[in-house]
Structures are given as C-alpha cells and as structure tokens.
What we know:
Oligomer: single chain
Low-confidence stretches: none
Mean pLDDT: 93
Number of strands: 5
Structural class: alpha/beta
Helix content: 40-55%
Shape: globular
Amino acid sequence: MTEFDEYERRAWQGRAATYERSFALMCAYPAPALLDAAGVGAGDKVLDVGTGPGTVAALACARGAAVTAVDPEESMLDAARRNAPAADVRHGVLPRLDLEDEAFDVVTANFVLNHVGDPVAALGELRRVTRVGGRIAFTVWPYPLPMLQRLWGM
Length: 154
C-alpha cells in the first residue's frame, strides 16, 4: 500500500452517509452509461470494484447480472448491502483482490482508479479477474480539470 492509499483509507473511513448525500449523487449519473458501455445484461457475472454505496452494483443487479461488489471501506460496504441487497458485497482493496483469475465477464470501476496509489497495478488487477474476452469499463475524473471544475478551487 502506498502513502496515497493510506491517505485515501483515512479520508473515506466512516464517510458513507456523507458521501451518499453528496458526491454519490454526481457519481451515479454516468452509471447507466458505464453499464451500457460494458454491455451488462442478464446472466453476466459482474464485479463492481470500489462499489461505494452500491449504485453500479444495484443497477447491474436490476439488469439481471450476478454481481459481486467490493470496497475497502466498511461503512461503504454497509451502504452497498442496503442499496444492492442482491449483490454479494465483500471487502476488497486494489491493487490486490482476493478473487479468482478470470472469474468475471464484466468488471466495472466507477471513479475508482483516481483513488488508488498505483492505477496501473489496479488496472492490471481488473484484467486479471476478467475472463478472456470479457469487458472492463471504468470512469475517471478528468485531468486537467474542465474549466468549470477549476472555478471551484478559486
């Protein structure tokens, strides 16, 4: 784990309720398009990495997918279990997930890769757990920030 990873763990610890009332609403916006891009449908085995409160996991379950959702933060796992009761919600931390090689048809990561200290290793881990011919879909915060987001820092 890098210093950045340690910082992220501390920053998010116990913050699920606050996150659900704030950034989760914004992060939910691209979730349907993320699942569309990944071609998620009935019967797909889906892994949602960094599930947070389970937004993507719940939407994938609603499409008939068999969903495993992982997150490193316990309060997020509690929220995900509440919001995506059909999903198998587990503790999991990138860049090393305790999951079998090539176990999933689809792997999603909605605004997660920006929150790991070694995004290249994290992406490699997403690939490891995706079956040959499977699909990986993720969203990231842009850099440099778009003009409107730069105004927030002024």
